[in-house]
Amino acid sequence: NDRTETLEFQAEARQLLQLMVHSIYSNKDVFLRELISNASDALDKLRLTAMLDKELAVDTDDLHIAIEVDRDARTLTVRDNGIGMTRDEVVSVIGTIAKSGTAELLRQLREAKDAGTSQELIGQFGVGFYAAFMVADQVELITRRAGEDGGTRWESDGAGTYTVTPIEDAPQGTAVTLHLKPADAEDNLHDYTAEWTIREIVKRYSDFIAHPIRMAVERPGSDGAEATTETVTINSMKALWARPRGEVEPAEYHEFYKHVSHDWSDPLETIHMRGEGTFEYEALLFIPSHAPLDLFSPQGRRGVQLYVKRVFIMDDCDALMPNYLRFVKGVVDAHDLSLNISREILQQDRQIRAVRRRLVKKVLATVKELKTAQPERYRTFWTEFGAAVKEGLIDDSDNQDVLLEILSVVSTHDEAELTDLAGYVGRMKDGQSDIYYATGENRATIENSPHMEAFRAKGYEVLLLTDPVDEVWVERVGSYDGRALRSVAKGQVDLDTEEERKEAESERERQRAEYADLLGWMGGVLADSVKEVRLSSRLTTSPACVVGDAQDITPTLEKMYRAMGH
Ligand code: ADP
Ligand code: MG
């Protein structure tokens, strides 16, 4: 075909494909899960688009996925009659990887020494469509976007380039055909053209897919009659969230999680709940076991999906989960909403707000429970998501108390272990009335700071806060358990008892008189840099330090603002 164009994969896509071709991932069966997952997404999208756009003349009565095999040609096709792709969509979504964090992932992969680590990293990323190249040496994709006339054929062997060709007669939707690697290839464990292999993989990974997955199977004729083929549905299509909790196996939850999250590893926690009464809903939520690479990038989020009576309505439904819990994945199926509901209306809807309040409470309660019952798992949670959760102390005053309970911080009390605020308060010294914290880039910088000297001398514990968000929440929260949160770097810190203070005051008077000339001279010399030069009571070994006024912003925050261009 002279209209065939040969194009190059984007550099990052090429590197990821290399990894697939060279079989970095040991469980190759999951390629089928990825293709079925994409097909299912495409069917959801078509149903939704047809619902919103009545002009679009498409038939949505028989949305399904078909798996076709040709044992002689050794091909396996996954076909859907979903939304399909335009030529430009094929080039932009299959030829490139838009996910933020790709470059960083690839750098880490290059550095990963052993195969185990690499698999873990790839697992965190989710390779999606490219997984096809684990089992195929040639992949062909034929697609036609719903509502468009012409279709597109895409072909590649997974090396540097692919071709795209316009075609006249493609059915609406997408068909991905894999030319399977030779059956005797040493690392090919399964024959992916065998009916039972396919059935088993679908059962294990994709049983809950809400659309029928069909396959033609051979039935031997009885008593010498001709063999017949028959098309059967090989998944149960049961919406997992609608089933009673006690009847769902953990493995089923895990596979469902992988489908909605596009993650390849198991979740840390599963939350399955049901709301009854005036507004019925079911929610199946997951806390992942690791943070996505784009947790802190503004574009990067894929949170909770909204369904209405089993029909997919939208991805990333921010009305259901606050930003600080953006890492929570899953599905909420609300029974009494209009299928046409828009994001804006959802944000205003009183019942949706009530659901959101309940979901948030449940997620936080789950974390709190984890903290007391399974400290190890909680630690994983906090290490991965703590920095995001702390944003809740700024945004979500309703849940401040429980957020302060699940909070963990590093402190001078222990080199290695995190502490919580209750632990700090429990260790406070007699006569200590405030909770002290220090902020900075990392533990070492803070500990070397002269501000710490007086506290060390006194034996007072200091919280060491190193996330940029810490500056903001400590200010916002102000106190815990009736005790003020006080920065070691701000204002006058009173560390002494009444008597010591009087003594020190007269001593300081004496010193002030003695050093008046020096201080006046230094104040003059440094006039452009500081507000005031004064004698310090806080230092024990350093000769001088710079302090902020109680109202001033702290150095870390100042740095943060400066970096942001203020
Ligand atoms: P993800 O599913 O995480 O987005 P994939 O690599 O699995 O990543 O797929 C990349 C993109 O390719 C999808 O987001 C979708 O836009 C497109 N795509 C893949 N398969 C299909 C399909 N069967 N029908 C329509 N679009 C598809
Ligand atoms: Mg996918």
UniProtKB/TrEMBL annotation:
<dbReference type="InterPro" id="IPR020568">
    <property type="entry name" value="Ribosomal_Su5_D2-typ_SF"/>
</dbReference>
<dbReference type="InterPro" id="IPR020575">
    <property type="entry name" value="Hsp90_N"/>
</dbReference>
<dbReference type="GO" id="GO:0140662">
    <property type="term" value="F:ATP-dependent protein folding chaperone"/>
</dbReference>
<feature type="binding site">
    <location>
        <position position="99"/>
    </location>
    <ligand>
        <name>ATP</name>
    </ligand>
</feature>
<dbReference type="InterPro" id="IPR036890">
    <property type="entry name" value="HATPase_C_sf"/>
</dbReference>
<dbReference type="InterPro" id="IPR001404">
    <property type="entry name" value="Hsp90_fam"/>
</dbReference>
<dbReference type="Pfam" id="PF13589">
    <property type="entry name" value="HATPase_c_3"/>
</dbReference>
<dbReference type="GO" id="GO:0016887">
    <property type="term" value="F:ATP hydrolysis activity"/>
</dbReference>
<dbReference type="InterPro" id="IPR019805">
    <property type="entry name" value="Heat_shock_protein_90_CS"/>
</dbReference>
<feature type="binding site">
    <location>
        <position position="174"/>
    </location>
    <ligand>
        <name>ATP</name>
    </ligand>
</feature>
<feature type="binding site">
    <location>
        <position position="85"/>
    </location>
    <ligand>
        <name>ATP</name>
    </ligand>
</feature>
<dbReference type="InterPro" id="IPR037196">
    <property type="entry name" value="HSP90_C"/>
</dbReference>
<dbReference type="GO" id="GO:0005524">
    <property type="term" value="F:ATP binding"/>
</dbReference>
<keyword id="KW-0346">Stress response</keyword>
<keyword id="KW-0547">Nucleotide-binding</keyword>
<keyword id="KW-0963">Cytoplasm</keyword>
<dbReference type="GO" id="GO:0005737">
    <property type="term" value="C:cytoplasm"/>
</dbReference>
<feature type="binding site">
    <location>
        <position position="343"/>
    </location>
    <ligand>
        <name>ATP</name>
    </ligand>
</feature>
<feature type="binding site">
    <location>
        <position position="34"/>
    </location>
    <ligand>
        <name>ATP</name>
    </ligand>
</feature>
<feature type="binding site">
    <location>
        <position position="80"/>
    </location>
    <ligand>
        <name>ATP</name>
    </ligand>
</feature>
<keyword id="KW-0067">ATP-binding</keyword>
<comment type="function">
    <text>Molecular chaperone. Has ATPase activity.</text>
</comment>
<protein>
    <recommendedName>
        <fullName>Chaperone protein HtpG</fullName>
    </recommendedName>
</protein>
<dbReference type="Pfam" id="PF00183">
    <property type="entry name" value="HSP90"/>
</dbReference>
<feature type="binding site">
    <location>
        <begin position="100"/>
        <end position="101"/>
    </location>
    <ligand>
        <name>ATP</name>
    </ligand>
</feature>
<feature type="binding site">
    <location>
        <position position="38"/>
    </location>
    <ligand>
        <name>ATP</name>
    </ligand>
</feature>
<keyword id="KW-0143">Chaperone</keyword>
<feature type="binding site">
    <location>
        <begin position="124"/>
        <end position="129"/>
    </location>
    <ligand>
        <name>ATP</name>
    </ligand>
</feature>
<feature type="region of interest" description="B">
    <location>
        <begin position="344"/>
        <end position="559"/>
    </location>
</feature>
<comment type="subunit">
    <text>Homodimer.</text>
</comment>
<comment type="similarity">
    <text>Belongs to the heat shock protein 90 family.</text>
</comment>
<feature type="domain" description="Histidine kinase/HSP90-like ATPase">
    <location>
        <begin position="27"/>
        <end position="184"/>
    </location>
</feature>
<dbReference type="InterPro" id="IPR003594">
    <property type="entry name" value="HATPase_dom"/>
</dbReference>
<dbReference type="GO" id="GO:0051082">
    <property type="term" value="F:unfolded protein binding"/>
</dbReference>
<feature type="region of interest" description="A; substrate-binding">
    <location>
        <begin position="1"/>
        <end position="343"/>
    </location>
</feature>
